[in-house]
Design a protein that fits this description.
Elements (H helix, E strand, L loop, with lengths): L15 H9 L6 H11 L6 H13 L1 E4 L7 H12 L13 E4 L4 H7 L6 E6 L9 H13 L4 E5 L2 H5 L3 H14 L9 E5 L2 H4 L2 H13 L4 E3 L11 H18 L4 E3 L7 H14 L12 E3 L2 H14 L12
Parallel strand pairs: 1-2, 1-8, 2-3, 3-4, 4-5, 5-6, 6-7
Helix pairs in contact: 2-11, 3-12, 3-13, 6-8, 10-11, 11-12
Protein backbone atom coordinates (compact mmCIF):
# COMPACT_ATOMS: atom_id res chain seq x y z
CA UNK A 1 0.00 0.00 0.00
CA UNK A 2 1.52 3.37 -0.94
CA UNK A 3 1.94 5.86 1.91
CA UNK A 4 -0.69 8.22 0.47
CA UNK A 5 -3.31 5.48 0.75
CA UNK A 6 -2.65 4.69 4.42
CA UNK A 7 -4.94 6.06 7.12
CA UNK A 8 -3.28 8.08 9.87
CA UNK A 9 -3.00 6.63 13.37
CA UNK A 10 -4.25 8.80 16.21
CA UNK A 11 -1.56 10.14 18.56
CA UNK A 12 -1.37 7.06 20.73
CA UNK A 13 1.92 8.13 22.35
CA UNK A 14 0.64 11.35 23.91
CA UNK A 15 0.64 9.78 27.37
CA UNK A 16 1.46 6.54 29.13
CA UNK A 17 -2.26 5.85 29.50
CA UNK A 18 -2.97 6.41 25.79
CA UNK A 19 -0.07 4.17 24.79
CA UNK A 20 -1.14 1.43 27.20
CA UNK A 21 -4.73 1.65 25.96
CA UNK A 22 -3.58 1.31 22.35
CA UNK A 23 -1.16 -1.58 22.93
CA UNK A 24 -3.61 -3.55 25.06
CA UNK A 25 -6.31 -2.86 22.49
CA UNK A 26 -4.41 -4.71 19.76
CA UNK A 27 -6.06 -8.00 18.74
CA UNK A 28 -4.97 -10.90 20.92
CA UNK A 29 -2.79 -13.58 19.35
CA UNK A 30 -4.41 -16.98 18.82
CA UNK A 31 -1.45 -19.02 20.09
CA UNK A 32 -2.78 -22.37 18.87
CA UNK A 33 -3.55 -21.02 15.41
CA UNK A 34 -0.20 -19.22 15.22
CA UNK A 35 1.79 -22.32 16.14
CA UNK A 36 -0.17 -24.38 13.61
CA UNK A 37 0.39 -21.90 10.78
CA UNK A 38 4.11 -21.59 11.52
CA UNK A 39 4.42 -25.39 11.55
CA UNK A 40 2.48 -25.73 8.29
CA UNK A 41 4.65 -23.16 6.51
CA UNK A 42 7.71 -25.06 7.68
CA UNK A 43 6.67 -28.14 5.71
CA UNK A 44 6.86 -26.43 2.28
CA UNK A 45 9.37 -28.15 -0.02
CA UNK A 46 11.76 -25.98 -2.07
CA UNK A 47 13.91 -27.75 -4.68
CA UNK A 48 16.44 -27.28 -7.50
CA UNK A 49 16.38 -23.79 -9.08
CA UNK A 50 14.17 -22.32 -6.36
CA UNK A 51 16.46 -23.76 -3.69
CA UNK A 52 19.54 -22.29 -5.33
CA UNK A 53 17.85 -18.89 -5.44
CA UNK A 54 16.77 -19.19 -1.81
CA UNK A 55 20.29 -20.09 -0.68
CA UNK A 56 21.86 -17.08 -2.39
CA UNK A 57 19.10 -14.83 -1.07
CA UNK A 58 19.61 -16.13 2.48
CA UNK A 59 23.39 -15.54 2.25
CA UNK A 60 22.76 -11.95 1.13
CA UNK A 61 20.48 -11.43 4.17
CA UNK A 62 22.93 -12.51 6.88
CA UNK A 63 24.27 -10.17 9.52
CA UNK A 64 27.52 -12.06 10.08
CA UNK A 65 28.18 -11.63 13.76
CA UNK A 66 30.90 -11.78 16.38
CA UNK A 67 29.80 -10.56 19.82
CA UNK A 68 32.14 -12.12 22.32
CA UNK A 69 34.19 -10.70 25.16
CA UNK A 70 37.26 -12.24 23.53
CA UNK A 71 36.80 -10.39 20.22
CA UNK A 72 40.04 -8.88 18.91
CA UNK A 73 40.80 -6.63 15.93
CA UNK A 74 42.31 -9.65 14.21
CA UNK A 75 39.16 -11.71 14.68
CA UNK A 76 37.00 -8.89 13.31
CA UNK A 77 39.30 -8.44 10.29
CA UNK A 78 39.11 -12.18 9.64
CA UNK A 79 35.31 -12.10 9.77
CA UNK A 80 35.25 -9.13 7.41
CA UNK A 81 37.54 -10.99 5.00
CA UNK A 82 35.05 -13.87 5.04
CA UNK A 83 32.26 -11.42 4.34
CA UNK A 84 34.12 -9.98 1.35
CA UNK A 85 34.79 -13.44 -0.08
CA UNK A 86 32.56 -16.08 1.58
CA UNK A 87 33.63 -18.95 -0.69
CA UNK A 88 37.19 -18.63 -2.07
CA UNK A 89 36.48 -21.54 -4.45
CA UNK A 90 33.53 -19.72 -6.04
CA UNK A 91 33.66 -15.96 -6.51
CA UNK A 92 29.98 -15.90 -7.56
CA UNK A 93 28.87 -16.51 -3.96
CA UNK A 94 27.08 -13.39 -2.66
CA UNK A 95 28.35 -11.44 0.33
CA UNK A 96 26.33 -11.09 3.54
CA UNK A 97 24.38 -7.92 4.23
CA UNK A 98 26.41 -6.78 7.24
CA UNK A 99 29.11 -7.53 9.75
CA UNK A 100 27.83 -7.02 13.31
CA UNK A 101 30.28 -6.12 16.11
CA UNK A 102 30.54 -4.26 19.41
CA UNK A 103 30.97 -0.44 19.23
CA UNK A 104 34.70 -0.54 19.96
CA UNK A 105 35.24 -2.73 16.88
CA UNK A 106 33.22 -0.62 14.43
CA UNK A 107 36.20 1.32 13.13
CA UNK A 108 38.16 -1.88 12.51
CA UNK A 109 35.24 -3.40 10.58
CA UNK A 110 34.64 -0.19 8.63
CA UNK A 111 38.26 -0.06 7.48
CA UNK A 112 38.25 -3.77 6.59
CA UNK A 113 35.10 -3.45 4.47
CA UNK A 114 36.08 -0.27 2.61
CA UNK A 115 35.08 -0.43 -1.05
CA UNK A 116 32.28 -2.98 -0.50
CA UNK A 117 28.53 -2.70 -0.08
CA UNK A 118 28.64 -4.68 3.17
CA UNK A 119 27.18 -2.69 6.05
CA UNK A 120 28.75 -2.38 9.49
CA UNK A 121 26.21 -3.00 12.23
CA UNK A 122 26.88 -2.43 15.91
CA UNK A 123 25.01 -3.61 18.97
CA UNK A 124 24.48 -0.87 21.54
CA UNK A 125 22.52 0.33 24.59
CA UNK A 126 24.38 -1.95 27.01
CA UNK A 127 23.81 -5.07 24.92
CA UNK A 128 22.67 -7.74 25.72
CA UNK A 129 20.98 -7.02 29.08
CA UNK A 130 20.28 -3.33 28.56
CA UNK A 131 20.79 -2.71 32.28
CA UNK A 132 22.28 0.77 32.24
CA UNK A 133 21.17 4.38 32.53
CA UNK A 134 19.85 6.14 29.46
CA UNK A 135 22.94 8.37 29.46
CA UNK A 136 25.22 5.32 29.22
CA UNK A 137 23.08 3.81 26.47
CA UNK A 138 23.10 7.02 24.45
CA UNK A 139 26.89 7.28 24.82
CA UNK A 140 27.15 3.68 23.55
CA UNK A 141 25.14 4.57 20.43
CA UNK A 142 27.02 7.80 19.79
CA UNK A 143 30.35 5.98 19.95
CA UNK A 144 29.22 3.45 17.35
CA UNK A 145 27.71 6.06 15.01
CA UNK A 146 30.78 8.30 15.28
CA UNK A 147 33.00 5.34 14.38
CA UNK A 148 30.98 4.85 11.19
CA UNK A 149 28.31 2.25 12.01
CA UNK A 150 25.72 1.97 9.24
CA UNK A 151 23.24 0.20 11.50
CA UNK A 152 22.54 0.14 15.24
CA UNK A 153 21.04 -2.90 17.01
CA UNK A 154 19.62 -1.71 20.34
CA UNK A 155 17.99 -3.73 23.12
CA UNK A 156 14.82 -2.57 24.84
CA UNK A 157 14.49 -2.29 28.60
CA UNK A 158 12.59 -5.55 29.18
CA UNK A 159 12.08 -4.75 32.85
CA UNK A 160 10.29 -1.51 31.97
CA UNK A 161 8.24 -3.21 29.27
CA UNK A 162 7.16 -6.14 31.44
CA UNK A 163 6.15 -3.80 34.27
CA UNK A 164 3.95 -1.82 31.87
CA UNK A 165 6.11 1.31 31.62
CA UNK A 166 5.58 1.50 27.88
CA UNK A 167 6.20 5.23 27.51
CA UNK A 168 9.65 4.84 29.09
CA UNK A 169 10.53 2.20 26.49
CA UNK A 170 9.06 4.34 23.70
CA UNK A 171 11.03 7.42 24.75
CA UNK A 172 14.28 5.46 24.98
CA UNK A 173 13.85 4.04 21.47
CA UNK A 174 12.99 7.51 20.15
CA UNK A 175 16.10 8.96 21.84
CA UNK A 176 18.30 6.30 20.25
CA UNK A 177 16.62 6.96 16.89
CA UNK A 178 17.63 10.60 17.22
CA UNK A 179 21.23 9.62 18.00
CA UNK A 180 21.36 7.61 14.78
CA UNK A 181 21.16 10.86 12.79
CA UNK A 182 24.52 12.04 11.46
CA UNK A 183 25.51 15.75 11.57
CA UNK A 184 26.72 15.40 7.97
CA UNK A 185 23.36 13.99 6.86
CA UNK A 186 21.81 10.57 6.68
CA UNK A 187 21.31 8.16 9.53
CA UNK A 188 22.27 4.73 10.75
CA UNK A 189 19.34 2.33 10.43
CA UNK A 190 17.91 1.28 13.78
CA UNK A 191 17.11 -2.33 14.68
CA UNK A 192 15.23 -2.77 17.95
CA UNK A 193 15.76 -6.06 19.80
CA UNK A 194 12.97 -7.41 22.01
CA UNK A 195 14.48 -10.60 23.50
CA UNK A 196 11.28 -12.55 22.77
CA UNK A 197 12.32 -15.37 25.08
CA UNK A 198 11.96 -12.97 28.00
CA UNK A 199 8.67 -11.42 26.86
CA UNK A 200 6.90 -14.71 27.64
CA UNK A 201 3.75 -14.30 25.49
CA UNK A 202 2.91 -13.73 21.85
CA UNK A 203 0.69 -10.82 22.89
CA UNK A 204 3.74 -9.14 24.41
CA UNK A 205 5.74 -9.73 21.22
CA UNK A 206 2.97 -8.04 19.21
CA UNK A 207 2.84 -5.10 21.64
CA UNK A 208 6.62 -4.70 21.59
CA UNK A 209 6.56 -4.76 17.78
CA UNK A 210 4.05 -1.93 17.56
CA UNK A 211 5.77 0.03 20.33
CA UNK A 212 9.14 -0.09 18.54
CA UNK A 213 7.65 0.81 15.17
CA UNK A 214 5.75 3.75 16.61
CA UNK A 215 9.04 4.98 18.11
CA UNK A 216 10.81 4.93 14.75
CA UNK A 217 12.45 1.50 14.40
CA UNK A 218 13.67 0.63 10.90
CA UNK A 219 13.83 -3.07 11.87
CA UNK A 220 12.41 -5.16 14.68
CA UNK A 221 14.58 -8.03 15.87
CA UNK A 222 13.66 -11.13 17.86
CA UNK A 223 16.57 -11.59 20.19
CA UNK A 224 20.19 -11.09 21.18
CA UNK A 225 21.22 -14.71 20.71
CA UNK A 226 22.38 -14.70 24.33
CA UNK A 227 19.41 -16.38 26.06
CA UNK A 228 17.87 -19.86 25.98
CA UNK A 229 14.94 -18.99 23.67
CA UNK A 230 15.83 -16.84 20.67
CA UNK A 231 14.18 -16.72 17.24
CA UNK A 232 11.43 -19.26 16.64
CA UNK A 233 9.10 -19.50 13.63
CA UNK A 234 6.00 -18.62 15.72
CA UNK A 235 7.45 -15.57 17.48
CA UNK A 236 8.89 -14.35 14.17
CA UNK A 237 5.51 -14.85 12.51
CA UNK A 238 3.92 -12.53 15.10
CA UNK A 239 6.44 -9.86 14.12
CA UNK A 240 5.89 -10.40 10.38
CA UNK A 241 2.15 -9.92 10.85
CA UNK A 242 2.83 -6.79 12.92
CA UNK A 243 4.95 -5.11 10.22
CA UNK A 244 2.32 -6.02 7.63
CA UNK A 245 -0.43 -4.42 9.70
CA UNK A 246 1.75 -1.42 10.55
CA UNK A 247 2.36 -0.64 6.89
CA UNK A 248 -1.35 -0.96 6.18
CA UNK A 249 -2.04 1.54 8.98
CA UNK A 250 0.78 4.03 8.38
CA UNK A 251 2.26 3.42 4.94
CA UNK A 252 5.73 2.88 6.47
CA UNK A 253 7.61 -0.34 5.83
CA UNK A 254 9.70 -1.87 8.63
CA UNK A 255 12.12 -4.77 8.39
CA UNK A 256 12.31 -7.95 10.49
CA UNK A 257 15.39 -9.76 11.80
CA UNK A 258 15.19 -13.17 13.49
CA UNK A 259 18.41 -13.85 15.40
CA UNK A 260 19.82 -16.72 17.40
CA UNK A 261 19.40 -20.44 16.83
CA UNK A 262 19.08 -20.35 13.01
CA UNK A 263 21.93 -22.63 11.95
CA UNK A 264 20.93 -24.66 8.90
CA UNK A 265 19.90 -24.00 5.31
CA UNK A 266 16.66 -25.85 5.99
CA UNK A 267 15.87 -23.47 8.85
CA UNK A 268 16.68 -20.37 6.78
CA UNK A 269 14.47 -21.48 3.89
CA UNK A 270 11.57 -22.04 6.30
CA UNK A 271 11.85 -18.41 7.35
CA UNK A 272 11.99 -17.21 3.73
CA UNK A 273 8.83 -19.17 2.94
CA UNK A 274 7.15 -17.59 5.95
CA UNK A 275 8.16 -14.10 4.78
CA UNK A 276 6.91 -14.76 1.26
CA UNK A 277 3.59 -16.19 2.42
CA UNK A 278 2.96 -13.47 5.01
CA UNK A 279 4.43 -10.34 3.42
CA UNK A 280 5.19 -11.13 -0.23
CA UNK A 281 8.05 -9.97 -2.43
CA UNK A 282 8.26 -6.51 -0.87
CA UNK A 283 10.16 -7.92 2.12
CA UNK A 284 12.29 -10.49 0.27
CA UNK A 285 15.46 -8.42 0.17
CA UNK A 286 18.33 -7.66 2.57
CA UNK A 287 16.91 -4.16 3.03
CA UNK A 288 13.82 -5.58 4.77
CA UNK A 289 14.75 -9.01 6.10
CA UNK A 290 17.91 -10.23 7.85
CA UNK A 291 19.21 -13.27 9.65
CA UNK A 292 21.27 -12.63 12.79
CA UNK A 293 23.67 -15.54 12.67
CA UNK A 294 27.24 -16.72 12.63
CA UNK A 295 27.23 -20.46 11.91
CA UNK A 296 24.41 -20.27 9.34
CA UNK A 297 26.67 -18.98 6.56
CA UNK A 298 28.85 -22.10 6.57
CA UNK A 299 25.89 -24.44 6.12
CA UNK A 300 24.48 -22.30 3.31
CA UNK A 301 27.86 -22.38 1.56
CA UNK A 302 28.08 -26.16 1.89
CA UNK A 303 24.57 -26.60 0.47
CA UNK A 304 25.45 -24.19 -2.34
CA UNK A 305 28.52 -26.26 -3.18
CA UNK A 306 26.39 -29.42 -3.11
CA UNK A 307 23.98 -27.97 -5.69
CA UNK A 308 26.79 -26.98 -8.04
CA UNK A 309 28.99 -30.08 -7.68
CA UNK A 310 26.49 -32.81 -6.79
CA UNK A 311 28.37 -33.80 -3.64
CA UNK A 312 28.82 -32.54 -0.11
CA UNK A 313 32.20 -30.93 0.43
CA UNK A 314 32.05 -31.09 4.23
CA UNK A 315 32.84 -28.50 6.91
CA UNK A 316 36.59 -28.52 6.19
CA UNK A 317 35.90 -26.74 2.88
CA UNK A 318 34.58 -23.57 4.48
CA UNK A 319 36.42 -21.26 6.83
CA UNK A 320 35.69 -21.42 10.55
CA UNK A 321 34.50 -18.09 11.99
Amino acid sequence: MPPSAAPALPDVTASDQALRRFLHGLPGVDAVGLDARAAALGTRSIKTTAKAYAIDLAISMIDLTTLEGADTPGKVRSLCAKGRNPDPSDRTAPSPAAICVYPDMVRVAKESLAGTDIQVASVATAFPAGRASREVKIADVREAVAAGADEIDMVIDRGAFLSGRYLKVFEEIAAVRECCERPSGGAARLKVIFENGELATYDNVRRASWLAMLAGADFIKTSTGKVAVNATPPNTLVMLEAVRDFRASTGRQVGVKPAGGIRTTKDAIKYLVMVNETLGDDWLSPRWFRFGASGLLNDLLMQRQKLSSGRYSGPDYVTVD
